[in-house]
Specification:
heterodimer, A: three-stranded antiparallel beta sheet, 13 helices, 3 strands, B: alpha+beta, 23 helices, 23 strands, binds zinc ion
Chain lengths: 363, 591
């Protein structure tokens, strides 16, 4: 892994994302707060990159149960704060308002890495992992926050696959889940999921969001309308466009070149992260890396797809771009863990080279 | 490897989708995006209020609640309309008829179900709103005559801007559907009263929903007008004239009009301005119907006419103020000259046909001897007399701050040739010199002439508004504050004329105005009319122009009665006396 490539692509993503938030929400509102989140996140990233993930492995279990507890707290009326009909936020007074479901994502990654760290995970490990995922999944689905629940599912699937869990179990779970979904979901939830196919049938609700987002992106053209110049982004035509639909601001104001640029930066970062997770020698660390890759990659691709009308709209943020403190911290900490793992990895080849150098002499 | 392949595939799909949206479909989507649009909305500023000289509120604003809606969208079956009619206090069958008509004419055009709702009706209507789709309660502003219905001609009224007015006023920020001053001070000072509109940018998406409202500039309230008008005096003057008109109506059996001007002699500040009959301006405030308006303009006594500034009539003998001062200024006579009146001159009779015999300058004014002025007029000649009359403000608007002021006519041989097509005869000069014939003046012009005599030659500009005060309390304008010009005549000449006027009140034709509280000086005027279609009996117009106190003039009072019959001394002088009695009597209205 090239440290320079990671830093460049990460800073690039953060810059573009922040510019989009600042342009649509303004400095006085979310713009300045998001900058604080970024700075705090980068600090944590530096801290995490100093040491190997292995050294905080003992934290996995307590952190996991703390997350579950926080998710439980959120559900208690009067403790959790309700926005748009779902309880997602926990207020810590002067320390700000946080979203435990974001922290739960990292908790699941660390927990699953611990569960799967054995050489060849069998059914027992698979079921343990499934139970852990199921606990958080249920708590989050109760909020309800379908998007985050899906992300947890993706993390479980990705890490199980990487760990080499029983293929049959994984396959059954995915197919079964997909088959069961139509019966579990309410009608309105199904409609919501399918509305992206015909946004014009719901011109006043979510379909409106999808249409306006595509109009905004489409009016960008090759080079865009210019930062702060997007007629739709600036005049509130894409509602709350500093949150999940932040990409529509990038599309309208920075154009196709901006979109492609963002995609390229994301791809560069993904390749670097994946490389670390392949080359990690420690299984725990490799699993943490693959979990972080799944987290960022799944969220990024799904968000882009839903913004441009290729996937159903579920509340999944665009990593490093969407406004939000919890997600920003977690994502940057994730990168920090991978960088820590890579550092440990970088140290290893030196040892190997040392061995190689000594080998001929030994011969 | 399969993961890399999958990743690349998703990336390509996404990149391709971006290309499709932003390049291939760019034009289509941009066009759709632009049908989301930003509108500019203007909010009318609160209109300035009008106060009298003592700080009494005369005209202010009140909310006008209107129930509006799209007739097609509002449930319009009999049962619902019945409810609506009850809530708005209208006869159900009438509302139904109106709605049916509107449904035929334009079912989607906004329709006013009821206007000028009172408080219980507003409450009732508010309760109906949730069940009636497309019905809304709109709050507008309208004028309220807080001081009562007096001086309505001067205060004026507002109405919707016409296409011609809009064409002229658009550069000043006026817009269609604006309400603007149509008459009186509302019209003259519309630019001050209206303030500046507030501007808001409203983002409307392609579905017509308001997405965001952004106030660019708040409305700036209009300026208040502080009038020179004395509201109590206005009421006294109105009732004094009304009493006289009522008497005349009994005597003559026909309606007639009249006007009163009460003005400060030194400054031209108008303390009261009466024009009778008056009209009710409230229908104009709420939007007059065509039927009401037609009825109003077809009344024979012309209630819409502001008689004090718009009626033109011969001044009769009150013009002798001009003739006498012209003769004095050209040295044709002096205060001590004694004339002889034999009853007629060059075929024209004196007012007293038996003749006044020997009569001094003062007596000629006091007794209103015509023969003296025939002689003086002929000696002066039409040119000198006409020029002097113009210098004193006749034949041109006085510049009072009211719209539609008449110019009047100050005749010259030139004028006669152009307008009558005949040359000027000496007989015309004879008529002219006693204020008959072609000469036509307005009451307010006579007030200026009388003020010039009273103040020693200052031609003042009559003005109702003393100060235009911004909503923050700054004085923005003082209209008519300075006199327009000063006549270069020796002061003792004016004193001689004043002496004659004082004589008229003490022992002459104006005795009816001999107030016990103040020394009044005045001049009567009686205009003989030939019977015509408007004035079938050929009744006299009568005048009384006066000032007081005689020693140091403060107030000018001009009274004029149309078609009153009788003489100025008997018709108008008593009205003026009531005004002086109010001002200087026990009520001490002036102080
Ligand atoms: Zn005589």
């Amino acid at each position: 892994m090239s440290l320079r490539a990671v830093v460049c692509s990460l800073l690039g993503l953060l810059t573009v994302g922040w510019l989009a938030v600042w342009s649509s929400a303004g400095w006085a509102g979310e713009g300045s707060k998001q900058l604080t989140h970024i700075i705090m996140g980068l600090g944590l990233l530096g801290l995490c990159a100093q040491s190997r993930p292995l050294s905080i492995r003992w934290l996995s279990t307590p952190y996991f149960f703390a997350s579950a507890l926080a998710l439980l707290l959120v559900l208690i009326p009067g403790v959790g704060q309700t926005v748009n009909g779902s309880q997602r936020w926990l207020s810590l007074g002067p320390l700000g308002t946080w979203q435990p479901s974001e922290f739960a994502k990292l908790a699941l990654i660390l927990m699953l890495a611990r569960v799967y760290q054995g050489r060849k995970p069998g059914w027992k490990a698979f079921f343990t992992a499934g139970a852990c995922t199921g606990l958080l999944f249920a708590l989050i689905a109760k909020q309800p926050d379908l998007g985050t629940a899906l992300v947890l599912g993706a993390i479980f699937a990705g890490m199980s696959w990487v760990a080499g869990a029983p293929f049959l179990g994984l396959f059954t779970l995915i197919v079964g889940g997909a088959a069961l979904a139509p019966f579990v979901l309410h009608d309105y939830q199904k409609n919501r999921l399918l509305i992206f196919l015909h946004p014009e049938t719901d011109p006043r609700g979510l379909g409106y969001h999808i249409t306006q987002s595509q109009l905004a992106i489409g009016s960008g053209g090759w080079v865009g309308q210019g930062l702060g110049q997007g007629a739709l982004s600036q005049n509130g035509f894409v509602p709350e466009n500093w949150t999940d639909f932040v990409f529509s601001v990038i599309g309208e104001e920075l154009g196709l070149l901006g979109c492609w640029g963002l995609l390229a930066l994301g791809a560069l970062l993904a390749v670097q992260l994946l490389r670390v997770s392949w080359t990690c020698r420690d299984r725990y660390e490799a699993l943490v890396c693959s979990g972080v890759c799944t987290l960022l990659g799944f969220q990024g691709l799904t968000n882009l797809c839903m913004t441009v009308g290729l996937a159903p709209v579920v509340g999944i943020p665009l990593p490093f771009c969407t406004y939000g403190g919890s997600a920003m911290l977690i994502n940057l900490v994730g990168i920090g863990l991978v960088m820590g793992a890579a550092q440990a990895d970088n140290a290893a080849p030196k040892l190997q080279e040392l061995l190689k150098k000594t080998e001929p002499e030994a011969r | 490897m399969s993961l890399a392949g999958l990743g690349t595939a998703v990336m390509l799909v996404l990149g391709g989708r971006f290309y499709q949206l932003e390049v291939l479909r760019h034009k289509e989507l941009l066009h759709k995006a632009q049908s989301n649009s930003v509108f500019t909305e203007y909010t009318t500023a609160p209109r300035g209020r009008i106060w009298d000289r003592h700080g009494k509120l005369l005209v202010t604003n009140e909310p006008d609640f209107q129930l509006e809606g799209i007739p097609f969208e509002v449930p319009h079956d009999a049962k619902h309309l019945q409810q609506l009619a009850l809530a708005t206090g209208q006869p159900p069958h009438k509302l139904k008829a109106r709605v049916d008509k509107a449904l035929k004419a334009g079912p989607l055009e906004p329709f006013v179900f009821a206007r000028a709702l009172n408080t219980p009706q507003v409450v009732a209507a508010t309760k109906l709103l949730p069940q009636y789709k497309g019905l809304k309660l709109v709050i507008r502003e309208r004028r309220r005559f807080a001081g009562g219905l007096h001086a309505t001609h001067s205060l004026g009224y507002m109405g919707e801007i016409t296409a011609e007015e809009l064409k002229e006023l658009r550069p000043k920020g006026y817009m269609g559907l604006d309400r603007v001053g149509k008459e009186g001070l509302e019209r003259t000072y519309d630019g001050w009263l209206r303030g500046y509109k507030g501007v808001s940018k409203i983002s409307i998406d392609a579905l017509g929903r308001t997405v965001k409202t952004n106030q660019v500039r708040p409305p700036k309230p209009g300026c208040d007008l502080k009038l020179a008008l004395d509201w109590e005096l206005q009421k006294v003057a109105e009732s004094a004239l009304q009493e006289m008109l009522d008497t005349l109506r009994k005597e003559n059996g026909e309606l007639s009009g009249g006007s009163v001007v009460v003005m400060e002699a030194q400054t031209g500040a108008v303390r009261a301005l009466v024009s009778l009959p008056q009209y009710d301006p409230r229908p104009f405030a709420r939007g007059i119907t065509q039927k009401e308006y037609t009825r109003l303009i077809n009344q024979p006594n012309l209630p819409l006419l502001h008689r004090a500034v718009q009626t033109i009539a011969s001044p009769g003998s009150t013009f002798k103020l001009v003739t006498s001062s012209a003769a004095l200024s050209h040295g044709l006579c002096s205060a001590g000259t004694v004339f002889y009146c034999g009853g007629s001159y060059a075929g024209a009779n004196c007012f007293v046909t038996s003749g006044h015999g020997s009569i001094g300058f003062e007596g000629s004014l006091a007794h209103s001897c015509d023969v003296v002025y025939y002689m003086l007029g002929v000696k002066l000649g039409v040119d000198r007399l006409s020029r002097h009359a113009q210098n004193m403000g006749l034949g041109a608007p006085t510049g009072i701050d009211l719209p539609g002021e008449s110019h009047g006519i100050c005749p010259t041989p030139d004028w006669k040739w152009k307008n009558i097509g005949d040359k000027w005869y000496e007989g015309d000069t004879v008529n002219f010199s006693i204020g008959q014939g072609f000469l036509l003046v307005t009451p307010v012009q006579m007030a200026v002439v009388c003020a010039a005599v009273a103040n020693g030659g200052k031609i003042v500009q009559p003005h109702l508004v003393q100060q235009v005060v911004s909503y923050q309390g700054r004085i923005m304008a003082r209209p008519g504050f300075k006199p327009r010009r000063r006549l270069k005549l020796a002061g003792n000449l004016w004193a001689a004329v004043r002496q004659g006027m004082r004589g008229a009140v003490l022992y002459g034709t104006g005795g009816a105005c001999n107030s016990e509280y103040v020394h009044v000086a005045g001049k009567t005027g009686t205009v003989e009319n030939m019977p015509n279609s408007e004035n079938v009996h050929g009744r006299n117009h009568t005048w009384f122009v006066s000032f007081a106190p005689y020693e140091h003039p403060e107030i000018v009072v001009v009274v004029m009665c149309e078609k009153s019959g009788g003489y100025g001394g008997s018709r108008c002088a008593p009205v003026a006396r009531k005004i002086y009695d109010y001002l200087y009597g026990p009520s001490q209205g002036i102080r």
